[in-house]
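In practice, a research group might receive sequence data for several interacting partners and want a quick structural hypothesis before committing to experiments. The following worked case mirrors that situation: the sequences arrive first, and a predicted assembly follows.
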Amino acid sequence: MRASVFIATSLDGFIAREDGALDWLPPGGGEEHGYTAFIASVDAVVMGRNTYETVLSFDTWPFAAALPVVVLTTRPLTQAPPRGALVEAMAGTPQEIVARLAQRGMKHIYVDGGITVQRFLAAGLIQRMTITRIPVLLGRGIPLFGPIGHDIRFTHLATRSYTGGMVTSEYLILGAPTD
Amino acid sequence: MRASVFIATSLDGFIAREDGALDWLPPGGGEEHGYTAFIASVDAVVMGRNTYETVLSFDTWPFAAALPVVVLTTRPLTQAPPRGALVEAMAGTPQEIVARLAQRGMKHIYVDGGITVQRFLAAGLIQRMTITRIPVLLGRGIPLFGPIGHDIRFTHLATRSYTGGMVTSEYLILGAPTD
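A structural hypothesis for the assembly, expressed as tokens:
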């Protein structure tokens, strides 16, 4: 089982404003910067409850109807997913979530949202991160990264920049298990 | 008068560990990534007291002897600069510092250190930022950016990556005055 992150941040490292707003992202997510190929490669999306609620507020459900979305929460989901969306609430440690999804035959999961990314990183369960820097400072917001107990070294694979000013860097995480 | 920033950060946005340590930077600053041309273009370096004390702890003074270094502090400097180094303590707002250095005929200053960069950015006095991302998460440390009262949009000029995994992006700051 592999787990990847594919996420945009402001130059000061925020993935959303404090209230979850994404108005500072380029319209429509900006130029195609690898997301289409990435999302086609994953078997499920794993996100926290806050990210799920932000996604629900979008005009349209951003995932293919057949793509399972796992929402990490200890409480039942109160907001129903859109018709046809495959959404499941799950609780547990990152290790438990990965084990459960691997048992279902999943090989590649997309980990999304600040707290969830931080928990999976701390557990050593992320193998690849694609970070797109949007050329704006927000000053405050929900950070992508948080405190960790030790340095985590990444290996840079590739960086591409786009005419809108987005810079997308792809990293492997050294030492993270790949199976 | 123009002011530029040329700085390295961890992927989680820190310019030093909490105690100021820079041990996570590549040895010798890593591959040449534009610093030589940049430092030759500046008339002075402006930094806060904390950054100055970190610089003093280096084995060698990292600036040309003839390059003035302005240390922003309201207290006298207690640690003497190395023989031959041009160091001056100065107090005032970013506007006052820029005006004073412009009066001396300076045309381009290098603003360095987290708090000082944040103060000059908030004052709209930085025109160019070159940010080099080192492929490591530190988890905690001294942040490059801090709270600001409003979004600041940047224009991406160029990004280059280096075999050691460093990614250097150069930005102009929209709306910042250039004279």
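Before designing any experiment, note the following. Chain B has a mean pLDDT of 94. Residues 2-126 of chain B form a domain with the Dihydrofolate Reductase, subunit A fold (CATH 3.40.430.10).
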